[in-house]
Amino acid sequence: MSHKDESVQKPPGQDGHPPSGWHQKFIVEERFVPAPTRKRLYATSFVLIAIGLIVFLFLLDAVLTHTGFERLDEPVNSWFVAVRSPALTGVMIALAIIFGPIALPIIVLVVVVVWSVLAKHAWRPLLLAAGMVVGVVLAEVLAPIVRHPRPPVDLMLLGADSTFSFPSGHVLGTSDFLLILAFLIASRRQRTSLTVVLFSSASVIVLAQVASRLYLGYHWITDTSASMALSLVILGSIMAIDTARTVRVHGESVQGAHSQPQVDGT
């Protein structure tokens, strides 16, 4: 290794060694990849953001003007009401509780705290937490602005809910948590099979949560679709931020006093 390479790989710290103890949590590991790989990461993030924004604005326009995709709201809900059964209702209620406004924040908090404690570096769990907070803020801000009424109360299986329904907080929270978590794990392991398994599993669970909200009578298909679109925007943004902060092309140096080349992968 040349003298130049050694300087590129030198960890942060005044003596050339990474800080110890609690300060390690705030060190960001930077990973070195071929230039095409970084370009693909940026391209993927921008495509996700663009697709998410376009789909969300399309759905928003449909809801506000009562045209286009919004015309599917009642037929889709009628179909879900028609296929109700005691066994299926139990499954849908379980999904609503697990990924609901009480259980999901607890799950997210436990994952973020445990991950932050066990890992040497807190960058990825903090990104996960940030993505979740953004999703909550968007759901809380958009609902009273759009003012999309929920389905009739007599269709709701878990009691009346008079709040506005666009977008679905359940679906947005589930999508953000699972998709961001899948990316933060898969991006460091860089194994195609693992990436496929993680994102496929996340997608199946998100679609199940969509079905749950429609089946239980609390949302329209426009609400749940808008949540998935917003989640793509949030995922793409997280990918872009993570790539800008942690991805370097071979030959580049680590950025700043709080960075080190990837060693721990945590």
Strand proportion, as a percent range, falls in under 5%
One letter per element, helices H and strands E, the order comes to: HEHHHHHHHHEE
Taking all Cα atoms into account, the compactness measure Rg is 21 Å
Into how many domains do the coordinates divide?
1
Kindly, what is the distance between the CA atoms of the first and last residues, rounded to a whole number of angstroms? 26 Å
Helix content: 55-70%
What would the principal axes of the Cα set say about the shape?
A: elongated
Question: Strand order across the biggest sheet?
Answer: 2-1-3
Biggest sheet features: 3 strands, parallel
Number of helical segments with 4 or more residues: 9
Supply the helix-strand structural class: mainly alpha
Give the strand tally: 3
Low-confidence stretches: 1-15
Mean pLDDT equals 87
Keywords:
single chain, 266 residues, mainly alpha, three-stranded parallel sheet, 3 strands, 65% helix
Description of the molecule:
With 266 residues, the protein is mostly helical. It has one domain. The two termini are 26 Å apart.
Summarize the structure.
The protein is 65% helix and 5% strand. It has 9 helices and 3 strands. Strands 2-1-3 form a 3-stranded parallel β-sheet.
Topology:
Layout lengths: L2 H7 L18 E6 L1 H31 L7 H10 L3 H13 L4 H16 L4 H24 L22 H21 L2 H24 L5 H26 E3 L9 E3 L5
Parallel strand pairs: 1-2, 1-3
Helix pairs in contact: 2-9, 4-8, 5-6, 6-7, 6-9, 7-8, 7-9, 8-9
